[in-house]
From TrEMBL:
Taxonomy, superkingdom: Bacteria
Annotated localization: Cell membrane
Topology versus the membrane: Multi-pass membrane protein
Ranges for region Disordered: 299-327
Transmembrane helix is among the record's keywords: yes
Protein name, UniProt field: Quinolone resistance protein NorB
Record's GO cellular component terms: plasma membrane
TM region(s), chain numbering: 16-37, 57-74, 86-104, 110-131, 143-165, 205-227, 233-255, 275-293
Pfam family, one: MFS_1
Gene: norB
GO terms of molecular function: transmembrane transporter activity
Major place of residence: membrane
Length: 327
């Protein structure tokens, strides 16, 4: 008994103060800012890069695809190799993606940068691992709340500041400024946050499920862009895209049901509480998407008989359009 307690004392992680947690929170703030600058600047990016609206939609969605895949994997990697070690490496990938986006001369380079930035979503579960290992139960709850609040607040900062930064400097600085902050705070985390010991586990990482989910989401997004592009596509091509997406999704479900340590536990989705959360999330996401779509539709309105530029969006998109000049 005494030997066991001595062993636990040796591997017990060091306790930390609130300064490392504050740096971790600032990192979350910078990540939330970088994640949200694209959406309000999409019309500008489409004009500067010469891409269609359907192609421009890939800029924001590329980040979401990577985030959806990396979130369940990041936690397992953090447990196996240590939360700090994995977090610092993921932030290195995010920094490379942010720099690529800030220097992107065309859409493909910007998309690659967005894909790399998508791993930022894995910072949240890794942050939770760190605070739980280095703080008491009560302190860890407050620290997790702080990190989540700052990440959400960063989303608001990015949405509000993207336009002024693009107009005052350039759209490249929308990506460069948060990336610089991420690099600086990552260095702070490396300096101030102690290493956390990895947890030995027999559960492996579901790499087949990860690959299939990535392929499903990528095929779906590319198919959506192909179907909605100007001029349309043959119905045979639409059917082929649908078959590919369904086949990949079906393969992913089969793999997840058979995996000893699945990427996503599909049995959890059968619980009523999980369904309620999924429905609520869908309603909130669909509502925000409808608001953005309506505002963009109003901003693209052109009075008939004129060649004027699109009018800026008004505060009420449901109002009747103004009459054409000269009437």
């Amino acid at each position: 008994m005494k030997r066991a307690s001595l062993s636990e004392a040796v591997v017990s992680p060091a306790r930390i103060g609130w300064l490392p947690i504050g740096v971790l929170g600032i990192l979350a703030l910078a990540l939330g800012t970088l994640q949200s600058v694209v959406e309000p600047a999409l019309p500008l990016l489409q004009r500067e890069l010469g891409v269609s609206p359907s192609e421009g939609a890939l800029i924001g969605n590329a980040l979401l695809i990577t985030g959806a895949v990396i979130t369940p994997v990041a936690g397992k990697l953090g447990d196996r190799y240590g939360g700090k070690r994995v977090l610092v490496r993921l932030m290195g990938v995010v920094s490379v993606g942010g720099l690529m986006a800030s220097l992107a001369p065309n859409l493909p380079v910007l998309l690659v940068g967005q894909v790399l930035q998508g791993v930022m979503v894995g910072a949240l579960p890794l942050s939770f691992i760190l605070v739980r290992k280095h703080l008491t139960a009560g302190e860890s709850q407050a620290a997790i709340g702080l990190v989540v609040a700052l990440f959400t607040g960063g989303g608001m900062v990015g949405t509000l500041c993207a336009g002024p930064i693009a107009e005052g400097l350039s759209w490249q600085w929308m990506f460069a400024l948060p990336t610089i902050a991420i690099i600086a705070t990552t260095l702070g985390v490396t300096r101030l946050m102690p290493h956390d010991p990895p947890i030995q586990s027999d559960d492996g990482i579901d790499w087949p499920g990860t690959v299939l989910l990535s392929g499903t989401l990528l095929a779906f997004m590319l198919g959506l862009v192909t179907v909605t592009r100007d001029g349309g596509v043959p119905s045979l091509a639409v059917g082929a895209i649908a078959v590919v997406v369904v086949a990949l999704a079906s393969g992913w479900v089969v793999v997840e049901r058979r995996a000893a340590s699945p990427m996503v536990d599909l049995r959890m989705l059968a619980k009523p509480a999980m369904w309620n959360a999924c429905v609520l999330t869908f309603v909130m996401t669909a509502s925000s998407g409808m608001v953005l779509f309506s505002s963009r539709s109003c901003s693209r309105y052109r009075p008939r008989g004129t060649d004027s530029e699109p009018a800026p969006p008004t505060s009420d998109c449901s109002c009747c359009p103004a009459p054409s000049p000269g009437r």
